[in-house]
Amino acid sequence: MTEETEDKRVRRSRAALVEAAVRLVTERGTTAVSVTEITEAADVSRKLLYLHFGDRDALLVAATVDLTERWVAAGGAEDPEARTVDLARHLAEHQTFYRAVLTGSCAFAASEALKKLFSDLNRTTVSLLFGDLDEDALNDVTVYFAAGVMAIVQSWITGSESSADPSALADRLRRLTRVFTESFTRSNASDEEKS
């Protein structure tokens, strides 16, 4: 077997496991899905799950990241406000899965993985908003914003106020963005007036 063939088989089995995990967790609304159930649904051996992911919870975290990264890869609107609405729609569409993962046995690891993803997504925006920050400050501010976004997302997904209405989440995220943007704009205007 060639290395390329082996790589395709590895990608295919990983993708099958991730897809099976998302489907089963969504269908049941819980992460209480056994390794056997996931591997049977993916038509792979239990050994492959352990080989690729280590354990079931690591697979669920990987599935969470994969589902979110697929939304990122789909692109969508360039405008930050429209992109916020797109994110809210994605989360509403997959709310059952995200709720199960963010309240299940892998909740902390999944939340941390999503914060990392949100940090990576917001890095450019933070750079534009705050200008010339050194690398450490840029990292800290980006993580700070991502943690805030994740807290809002998590409370919406897992809270009783969420009825899968993405506009409610989008409104909260847009309001947060507006507050920071307006505050930053006022601060810059004040600095320019003093000069």
Kindly state the number of beta strands. Answer: 0
Q: CATH topology, anyone? A: Tetracycline Repressor, domain 2
Q: Identify the overall geometry.
A: elongated
Order of helices and strands: HHHHHHHHH
Structural class: mainly alpha
Give the terminus-to-terminus CA distance.
Answer: 69 Å
Number of domains: 1
The CATH architecture designation is Orthogonal Bundle
Strand portion, in percent?
A: under 5%
Q: Helicity level, as a percent range?
A: over 70%
Walk me through what this model shows:
This protein has nine helices and no strands. The protein has 195 residues and is an all-alpha fold. The protein has one domain: Tetracycline Repressor, domain 2 (Orthogonal Bundle), CATH 1.10.357.10. Helix 1 crosses helix 2, helix 3 packs across helix 4 and helix 4 runs parallel beside helix 7. It is elongated.
